[in-house]
Amino acid sequence: MAKAFSVQATIASFGGNLLKLEHNATSTGSTMKLNLFLPAQAEKGKVPVIFYLAGLTCTGDNGAEKGFFQATASKHGIAIVYPDTSPRGLGVQGEDESWDFGTGAGFYLDATKGSYAAGYKMSSYITKELPVALYGQFENLDSSRVSIMGHSMGGHGALTLFLRNPGMYKSVSAFAPISNPKNCPWGQKAFGGYLKSEEEYDEWDATELIKKWGGDFEALIDVGDADNFYNHGQLLPENFIEAAKSKGKADKINLRMQKGYDHSYFFISTFSEDHINYHAKRLL
Question: Where would you find this protein in the cell (predicted)?
Fold first, then answer.
C-alpha cells in the first residue's frame, strides 16, 4: 500500500519525534501540511491520539512550536496531530483578501456556497480523510483512543466536530473557543461566505449543537478574562454554557476564566499541561 504522507523533516522533541508531513488530500483538492508528534512509547506499541486544531491565520506549526503540548504528552505516551487550518492555493476568488476568511480560516466546516464548496471541506478532512490516512501509515496510532482540542477558531472546531460525531472522540477541550459563531462577527463572516443559507448555521454552531446532544456532556474550556476578542464579543462562551444548562448538560463543563490572560500562545502554553492531563485521564 502506497504511503499517503511524505516526511519533510523529523525533529527530536521531548524524547519523541515531531514529524513534518505533507500529502495530497482529495477532500480539499490541495496539498495539506501537518505536524505529527510521536512519543517514545510509540516505538513499543500503540499510543492514543489527540488532534489539536489551531486558530485563525495559523498553520499546523503554531501549536507544535508554541503550545508546549509535547512535554506533557511525552510523559503520558500520547501522540498529537497538528493539522492545517484550511486548504491553500486553490485560487478561489476572495480567499486571500482578509485574514479572518479563506486561507488560514477554514472554520472546520464543509462549505456549501459557490466556489468554496469544492475544496473548503475541513470537517471531512479532519474527521474522515486525515485520520484514515494517518492510521493507515502510522500503525502505532491507536484509532480507538482519540480526543480533540483546539484554540479560538480551532476551539470552535473541536467542540463542533465532537458534537457532530458522537463516539468518535473520547474527550474534548478548548482554549478561548468561538462558542456561538452565528452570533459573533467572525462567525457571521465565515458562515455567510461558506454556507449557502442561514438554515445551515446551526449545524456548525456549538451553542446550537449542545441542545441536541444526547446523554452527558463533559469538557474543559479555558478563557482569559483579559482576552481582547472575548471582551469584544467574539467568543461568547457564556452562551454555550447557558444553552447547555437549558438542556441539563452543563454540570460537567469546566469553564475556567483565567485572570489576566489574553488570547495568545502565552495563554495556551500556560494551561497546555492541564489540557493534556485532562485528556490523558480519558484516553489511558
Answer: Cytoplasm
